[in-house]
Design goal:
disordered N terminus, Nucleoporin_Nup133/Nup155_C, 5-stranded mixed β-sheet, elongated, structural constituent of nuclear pore, Nucleoporin, alpha+beta, mRNA transport, 37 helices, WD40/YVTN_repeat-like_dom_sf
Length: about 1250
C-alpha cells in the first residue's frame, strides 16, 4: 500500500484531491504507491461452508507482501483465506440508530443509569480476545476503532447484528516487539466528498504515520489500482527512546500528539486546499519549554524524559473563531498549559502555570481522608472540558461555577481534573474544577470520589479517563476494570449544603461504581461519549452524524466483549429536588437480577463494601424478596410465556439474593433471615404446585377445573390481585401464581374449604368428582407442606438459621406453613378423608379410576397426618415464645392438644390397614400412647385372624408373624423404656387381661413389675406378681399393707389382705432370722424395726376390723327380716337409733350413713365406727356380744387415731357416755338406801364403761383403752 522509499523528513505530498481526481505522474512507480483491495475476510472456519452467512468485511492490505508476511519478534501477520466480492452490500446511513430493538443486552440498571452491551463486534476481535488491543469510540460518526500491533478495525458499533460490516486495515509498519506500545489511531472527520470518516494511525515508537482519507473508499478503490487512497509520513525530530503516548483529535483535520517526553506536536492530515497531506510540528512552549528549541538539544536527546513528568492528558476544544482550536494539556504533577491553534498549524500559548499546591490544598480541604496519604503521591490523571452553551436549567442544577459555565471560549477555559492520592493499598480520587483565564489558573469546586479506591493498575491498556458529556450533570470516570458514575449536580438547598458550597466543597451526591470481572483479557481498551443531540451542524460547518440519544452516556470498548454503553436513565432527574440516589435495594437488585447471568462481564460481588448498615440491607432484602414474590419489580415479566420458567427464574433470583447477602460482611439479623427463607419456601412450593396443576389438567377432560383452579376461584377477591384484562391478564390461575404467591398460606387453607363448599352445597352431581377433588386436595396439601419442609431443611444453613426449630417472639414471623387457619383446615381435610374412605371403601369400588384415586388418598393419609402434626408443633413452638398474651394462650392450647391429636389421628390409621405407617408416625412424633395402641392392637388383630384360619400352614405362618411382632414390641421396650412399656401394658391389660401382662415374654427389663407397682389400683395384681414372678415377699407384704390400709373398701377383703400381709412379714422375718443365724448379719436393725412397726399397724387395723365385725354381729339379728338394703337400713335405724334426739338432724345423718356403709361391709373409718358405737342403742340384750360400746369406741380411738385427733375423739366418747343417762333421776336419793342407790349407779352407761375398761386392763395392758376424763 505504501512505498518504502517515501521521504521521512516531512509530510507526504497529497496524491488525491478532495474535489477531482488526478492522474498519477509519469515518473511515479505504481507499485510503490499505496493501494487498496476491497476484500471480504473469512473470520471463522465455517466461512466457506456457509459464505452467505458471513459478515461483510473489507480488508485494506499493503502491497508489501514480504513485509506483512514476515514475523518480527513474536508478532506475526497470519494469512487467512479470503473471498473476493464483486457486490457491495447496502450500508446503513451514518447516525441511523433505531430507538427500539437495537439488539443490546442490558447488563445492569438502576434509577440513575443503564449499562447495556451492544451486539456488534467483529468476529476476528471476538476470537482474538487474548492479544493486546486499544481503541476508541466515536459517536459523531457512529464507528468504533480498535487497533492491534498489525491491524486496525473499524465498524459501526451501534449495528444491530453481532457480526457487523467491518473495515480491516493491515498496518504497513507493524511493531517490532510484542511489548512495544500499541499503535495509536483516530478517525478523521469525513471530507466534503465523502460521508464516511477517514483513519489515521501512528506507530508510537517508529513515528510512522498512515492516513486513509475514507474508510469506505479505501476498500472500494481496490479495483482502481492506479488511484492512491492513502498517504504516509514519519514524525521528524523524535528523541531517542521517545514515543507517542496519545493522539488527540483537534478536528477537522488536525490532531495533537503527546509524547512520552512531555512534548506535544500538532499533526495535520490535510493541506490548506483540503488535499491529503501529513505535516507535524512540535509546540515549543508550555509543558515542553525546558527543551529549548524546535529540535531540542543534545542534552535532552541523550537524557530523554526520565527526569520530566509525563503528560497526563491533552484535550482539544473549539475556539471562538472558525478554524480555531484550544488545546489544554496537564502533566501528572499538576502543571497546566493551554494553546490556541489555527488551521494551518499556527499556534500561541494562552495559559501556563503550576497548580500542584493549589490542587493539593483544595483536595485536602474537601476530602480530609486524603490528608493521610503522602503529599508526593498526588497525581493528575486526566483532564476534560466542561461543555459550553448549556441550557439555563442545567446551569442552575450544576454544582460547578455558574459564572464559569456561562463564559465563552475566548474568555476562559473551563475544565475538570481527575486527581488522586495513593499509598500502597488504596487511592483517593477527586474531581477538581479548574478555570484557565489568561495567565490565571483557578481551582474551583472539589468533588471527592468515595466509592472507588482501587489504585490504577500499571499494566492497564487504557489510562483513567474523565468524561463529562452534555449537559454536564454526570461525570464518568473510566478505569481499566471499573467505571464510576458521579453526579455533578447540586443538592436541594439546606444550611449544611450552603456551608459546603461557600467552601467550594461539593456535597456527596449520587455516586456508584460499575465493576468488571478481574480477567486478564477483560479490560477497557477505549472509550468515548454520547451526548444528547442539539440538532447543530457542528463547528466550522462540519457535518455531524451523531447518534441520536436523549441522555448522556459513556461508550466503552471492552476487550473480548465489544461496545458497552453506560447511559444515564433520565438526566433531567438530576435537576429536580429529588435526584437519583444509591440505595441498598438498588445494589441488591443489580446483584440479584444481573449477577445471575453467567456471561455478564460485570461483577457485583466481592469488589467493595457497600456503605449501608445491616438494618438497611436487611430491610432492603425483605422488600426485594417481597417484590420478587409478587412480581412487582420491573425486572420480572408479568405475562411470561412459561409460568414454570418464570417461577424457576424467580427462585434463582432469591437464591442470588441470599448468596449475595452471605458474601457481605454485614450481619443480617435472624428475623430477617427467617422472613427471606419463608419467602423462598413459598416460591419453591408454588413451583411444585404448578407442576401438579399441569399434571391434573392432563388427567381431566378439556375445560374441567382442577382443585388448584377451584382454590384460586374461591379465594375472596380481597385476598388476591385483580386481573388487568387490558394488559392481557386473562388466566386467573397464572395471574395468581405471578402476583399472589406471598399469600400461599391462604391458598393451602382453601384446599379443604373448596371441598366443603362443593360437597355440602351440591355443586357436583356425582361422588366421582368429590373423590377426585379429595385426592387432588390431599396431594396438593401434603405435597406443598412436604416441599416447604424439605426446602427449609436443605437451605437452612445457607440462610444462617436452624431449620429444625421454629423460633418465636422478638419479631420472628409466624411460620407460614403452620398458621392457625392452615392447621384448622388441614385437620378438617384429614377427617373428611377418614369419613369419605369409610363410606367409599376402595375394595368395594367398581370404577377402576375411582378405585385408584381412593387407594392413593388412603396412601396419603400418613403423610397428611405427619404434616398436620408438624404444623401443630411449629405453631405451638412459635406461639409459646410470642410476647402477645393471646398468641401465648393459643400456643399452650396447641401444646396441650398435641398428644391427644397424635393419639387420635395416628391410631385411626389402623382402621385403614395402615399399621406400619401408623407405627412410624407414632415413633416420629414420640406418641407412645398411639404407638402402644397400634402395636398391641396389631398383635391382637393377627391373633384373631389366626383363630379363624383353617389351614395349618397359614396358621403357622400367622403365628410366626405374631411372634415377630411381639419381638418388635420387646425391642420397642428396649428402645423407649417405660414411656412406651407402661402404655403398652395398659392397652394389653384392657384388651387381654392381667394374664397377658404377666405372660409377655420379651420384657427384659421388668417393666411389667414396675408398671404394676406404679399403679395403686393394680395392687391386687402387683402383690401376686411380686410373689410368683419376682419372688419379692417383702414388697408383696408392703403392697398388701398399703392396699389394705389405704385403698381397700370392702372390710372382708381388707381383712384378708392385711392378714396375708402380716403373714408375708412374718415369713420374711423368719427367713431373715434364719439368715442371721447362718452368719448373715449384714441386715440393718432399721429394717427389722420397720417391719415391727408395719406388723403393729396391721394388728391395729385387724383390731378395728374385729370391732366392726362385732358391731355387725350385734345388728345382724335385726336385719334378717329385711328384704333389701333399704329395708335393712330402716330396721336398723328403728331399732338402734332411738337414743338420738330428733332435733339432732346432723347426728341422724351421720348415724344413717355409717349404718348404711356397715351393712354394705365397707371398711369404716375410725371416726365413723366411733359414731356408730357411741350413738347406737345397744341395750342389755346385746351385752353378750358387746359388753360395753363405749369401751370399744375407746379402743377404736386408740388403734385408729393419733395425736390431736385421738384426744378429740376420746373427749367425744366420754361426753356421749356421760349424757347417755338421766343424772337428775340418779341424783334423787331421797327415800333410797345405799344399796338401791348403788344399784341405780350400776346401771348407768358410765359405770359400765369404766367397769369394762377396768376389766380389759386385767387381761392386757397393751389393749388398755384410754381413760381421759375432762
Amino acid at each position: 500500500m505504501f512505498s518504502p522509499n517515501l521521504q521521512e523528513g516531512g509530510p507526504a505530498k497529497g496524491t488525491r484531491s478532495s474535489r477531482r481526481r488526478q492522474r498519477p505522474l509519469s515518473g511515479e512507480n505504481p507499485a510503490q504507491q499505496p493501494k487498496a483491495k476491497r476484500q471480504r475476510l473469512p473470520l471463522s472456519e465455517t466461512t466457506f461452508a456457509n459464505p452467505d452467512a458471513a459478515p461483510e468485511t473489507f480488508e485494506v492490505k499493503s502491497d508489501q507482501t514480504a513485509l506483512l508476511g514476515a514475523k518480527s519478534d513474536g508478532i506475526e501477520n497470519v494469512g487467512v483465506p479470503r473471498r473476493e466480492l464483486s457486490v457491495r452490500f447496502k450500508k446503513p446511513k451514518a447516525g441511523e440508530r433505531p430507538n427500539k430493538g437495537d439488539g443490546s443486552v442490558v447488563l445492569t440498571q438502576n434509577n440513575a443509569y443503564t449499562v447495556s452491551k451492544l451486539p456488534a463486534l467483529p468476529d476476528r476481535l471476538r476470537a482474538d480476545a487474548q492479544n493486546r488491543q486499544q481503541g476508541a469510540i466515536y459517536s459523531s460518526s457512529g464507528y468504533a476503532l480498535c487497533l492491534t500491533h498489525t491491524h486496525a478495525f473499524v465498524w459501526p458499533y451501534a449495528s444491530t447484528v453481532s457480526s457487523p460490516e467491518t473495515f480491516v486495515f493491515t498496518l504497513p509498519y507493524p511493531s517490532k516487539h510484542a511489548n512495544d506500545p500499541l499503535p495509536l489511531g483516530s478517525l478523521v472527520p469525513p471530507s466534503a466528498a465523502s460521508d464516511e470518516p477517514g483513519l489515521v494511525v501512528v506507530m508510537p515508537v517508529s513515528g510512522k504515520i498512515a492516513y486513509w482519507e475514507s474508510i469506505a473508499s479505501a476498500a472500494t478503490l481496490d479495483f482502481i489500482r492506479q488511484q492512491r487512497n492513502g498517504v504516509e509520513d514519519t514524525i521528524a525530530g523524535m528523541f531517542s527512546g521517545e514515543h507517542v503516548v496519545q493522539i488527540v483529535n483537534a478536528e477537522t483535520s488536525g490532531f495533537v500528539l503527546v509524547f512520552s517526553s512531555g512534548r506535544l506536536a500538532y499533526m495535520s492530515v490535510r493541506d490548506t486546499h483540503g488535499r491529503p497531506g501529513i505535516s507535524v510540528q512540535f509546540l515549543r512552549n508550555g509543558l515542553s519549554t525546558n527543551l529549548g528549541g524546535f529540535l531540542g538539544n543534545i542534552r535532552n536527546a541523550i537524557t530523554g524524559s526520565s527526569s520530566r513528568p509525563d503528560i497526563a492528558a491533552a484535550r482539544a476544544s473549539h475556539g471562538a473563531n472558525v478554524g480555531e482550536r484550544v488545546i489544554v494539556a496537564a502533566n501528572t504533577k499538576g502543571r497546566l498549559s493551554s494553546w490556541k491553534i489555527h488551521r494551518g498549524g499556527q499556534y500561541e500559548l494562552i495559559a501556563d502555570g503550576d497548580m500542584r499546591s493549589d490542587l493539593i490544598e483544595a483536595v485536602h480541604y474537601a476530602d480530609p481522608k486524603s490528608q493521610s496519604f503522602p503529599a508526593d503521591s498526588f497525581e493528575v490523571l486526566d483532564f476534560t472540558f466542561v461543555p459550553r452553551g448549556l441550557e439555563s436549567k442545567y446551569i442552575a442544577a450544576s454544582r460547578l461555577s455558574h459564572q464559569s459555565l456561562r463564559l465563552g471560549s475566548d474568555e476562559a477555559q473551563h475544565g475538570l481534573l481527575l486527581v488522586s492520592h495513593t499509598d500502597r493499598r488504596q487511592s483517593r480520587y477527586a474531581i477538581v474544577e479548574v478555570v484557565l483565564a489568561g495567565d490565571r489558573l483557578l481551582p474551583g469546586n472539589v468533588r471527592p470520589v468515595t466509592s472507588y479506591t482501587t489504585p490504577v493498575r500499571p499494566g492497564a491498556a487504557e489510562k483513567p479517563r474523565l468524561h463529562l458529556p452534555r449537559p454536564g450533570l454526570v461525570a464518568f470516570l473510566v478505569f481499566d476494570r471499573a467505571v464510576v458514575v458521579a453526579s455533578m449536580g447540586s443538592l436541594p438547598e439546606s444550611p449544611d449544603v450552603q456551608l459546603q458550597d461557600s467552601a467550594h466543597i461539593l456535597p456527596p451526591t449520587f455516586e456508584d461504581v460499575i465493576d468488571f470481572r478481574d480477567e486478564d483479557s477483560l479490560q477497557v481498551v477505549g472509550s468515548g461519549i454520547e451526548e444528547p443531540s442539539n440538532n447543530d451542524q457542528g463547528h466550522d460547518g462540519q457535518r455531524i452524524h451523531r447518534l441520536r440519544t436523549k441522555n448522556p452516556a459513556v461508550m466503552l470498548l471492552l476487550q473480548g466483549v465489544g461496545a458497552v454503553r453506560v447511559a444515564v436513565t433520565d438526566v433531567d432527574r438530576f435537576t429536580t429536588s429529588h435526584p437519583p440516589q444509591i440505595t441498598a435495594k438498588s445494589k441488591l437488585e443489580q446483584a440479584v437480577f444481573f449477577g445471575v447471568k453467567g456471561d455478564n462481564p460485570l461483577v457485583f460481588r466481592g469488589k467493595r463494601q457497600l456503605p449501608f448498615s445491616a438494618t438497611e440491607m436487611g430491610n432492603a432484602a425483605i422488600e426485594l424478596s417481597n417484590e420478587i414474590l409478587s412480581s412487582k419489580t420491573p425486572f420480572i415479566s408479568n405475562i411470561p410465556a412459561s409460568l414454570e420458567n418464570n417461577l424457576r427464574l424467580r427462585i434463582s433470583y432469591l437464591d442470588g439474593l441470599i448468596s449475595y447477602l452471605g458474601e457481605l460482611t454485614v450481619e443480617i439479623d435472624a428475623q430477617t433471615r427467617w422472613k427471606l427463607l419463608y419467602n423462598a419456601e413459598k416460591l419453591a412450593v408454588a413451583t411444585w404446585v404448578w407442576q401438579m396443576h399441569e399434571q391434573f389438567l392432563g388427567q381431566r377432560p378439556q375445560g374441567e377445573r382442577t382443585v388448584v383452579s377451584q382454590i384460586v376461584a374461591w379465594i375472596h377477591e380481597s385476598q388476591k390481585t385483580d386481573l388487568n384484562m387490558a394488559a392481557g391478564e386473562v388466566d386467573p390461575v397464572r395471574h395468581w401464581f405471578i402476583h399472589d404467591i406471598w399469600r400461599f398460606d391462604i391458598f393451602l387453607a382453601w384446599a379443604y374449604q373448596v371441598i366443603k363448599y362443593i360437597y355440602t352445597k351440591g355443586f357436583v352431581n356425582s361422588d366421582d368428582e368429590v373423590t377426585r377433588l379429595a385426592w387432588e386436595a390431599s396431594t396438593v396439601e401434603n405435597g406443598a407442606l412436604v416441599e416447604a419442609r424439605k426446602f427449609r431443611l436443605s437451605r437452612a444453613r445457607e440462610y444462617g438459621v436452624d431449620g429444625e426449630k421454629v423460633p418465636g417472639g422478638d419479631g420472628f414471623p409466624e411460620p407460614w406453613s403452620a398458621t392457625h387457619l392452615i392447621i384448622h383446615n388441614h385437620k378438617r381435610l384429614i377427617e373428611f378423608c377418614f369419613k369419605w374412605l369409610e363410606s367409599h371403601q376402595p375394595a368395594q369400588e367398581s370404577n377402576p379410576i375411582n378405585k385408584k384415586l381412593l387407594e392413593s388418598t388412603r396412601a396419603l393419609l400418613p403423610a397428611l397426618i405427619s404434616q398436620y402434626l408438624q404444623s401443630m408443633s411449629d405453631q405451638g413452638s412459635w406461639a409459646r415464645q410470642s410476647e402477645v398474651p393471646e398468641i401465648q394462650s393459643r400456643g399452650k392450647l396447641y401444646s396441650q392438644a398435641f398428644p391427644e391429636e397424635i393419639y387420635d389421628k395416628v391410631s385411626r390409621l389402623k382402621d385403614f390397614d395402615l399399621w406400619e405407617e401408623a407405627i412410624q408416625l407414632a415413633k416420629e412424633y414420640k406418641g407412645f400412647a398411639a404407638l402402644a395402641e397400634v402395636v398391641v392392637q396389631q398383635i391382637l388383630s393377627l391373633e384373631q385372624k389366626g383363630a379363624g384360619t383353617a389351614s395349618q400352614a397359614a396358621a403357622d405362618e400367622n403365628e410366626f408373624v405374631i411372634e415377630e411382632k411381639r419381638k418388635r414390641m420387646g425391642g420397642l421396650f428396649d428402645q423407649y423404656g417405660d414411656e412406651f412399656a407402661f402404655r403398652a401394658y395398659e392397652v394389653l391389660l384392657q384388651s387381654s387381661g392381667v394374664q397377658a401382662v404377666l405372660d409377655f415374654p420379651y420384657d427384659r427389663h421388668g417393666y411389667a413389675t414396675l408398671y404394676l407397682r406404679t399403679k395403686p389400683e393394680l395392687a391386687k395384681i402387683s402383690w401376686i406378681n411380686d410373689v410368683q414372678r419376682e419372688k419379692d415377699i417383702d414388697h408383696a407384704a408392703e403392697t398388701l399393707l398399703n392396699l389394705g390400709m389405704s385403698r381397700e373398701q370392702q372390710v372382708w377383703n381388707k381383712k384378708i389382705e392385711l392378714s396375708l400381709g402380716k403373714l408375708a412379714f412374718l415369713a420374711e422375718e423368719a427367713e431373715q432370722s434364719v439368715a442371721n443365724g447362718r452368719g448373715r448379719n449384714s441386715v440393718a436393725s432399721d429394717a427389722s424395726a420397720k417391719k415391727n412397726i408395719s406388723l403393729e399397724k396391721i394388728e391395729h387395723e385387724l383390731e378395728l376390723i374385729k370391732i366392726q365385725d362385732t358391731l355387725y354381729k350385734t345388728i345382724l339379728p335385726v336385719i334378717r327380716d329385711g328384704v333389701d338394703e333399704s329395708a335393712e337400713l330402716e330396721l336398723v335405724l328403728k331399732e338402734h337409733g332411738v337414743l338420738i334426739p330428733k332435733r339432732q338432724k346432723a347426728l341422724h345423718s351421720i348415724f344413717e350413713d355409717g349404718m348404711a356403709r356397715l351393712l354394705k361391709h365397707e371398711s369404716l373409718q375410725p371416726a365413723t365406727l366411733i359414731d356408730l358405737l357411741t350413738l347406737a342403742d345397744l341395750g342389755e340384750k346385746y351385752e353378750d356380744v358387746i359388753p360395753d360400746p363405749f369401751c370399744l369406741a375407746l379402743k377404736v380411738a386408740k388403734y385408729g387415731l393419733k395425736g390431736e385427733e385421738r384426744a378429740k375423739a376420746v373427749k367425744l366418747i366420754w361426753r356421749r357416755c356421760f349424757v347417755r343417762d338421766d343424772w337428775k333421776a340418779v341424783n334423787q336419793t331421797k327415800g333410797k338406801g345405799d344399796d338401791a342407790q348403788l344399784e341405780l349407779l350400776g346401771h348407768t352407761a358410765t359405770y359400765h364403761a369404766l367397769f369394762a375398761v377396768f376389766e380389759q386392763s386385767k387381761f392386757s395392758f397393751r389393749h388398755y383403752p384410754l381413760i381421759i376424763i375432762y
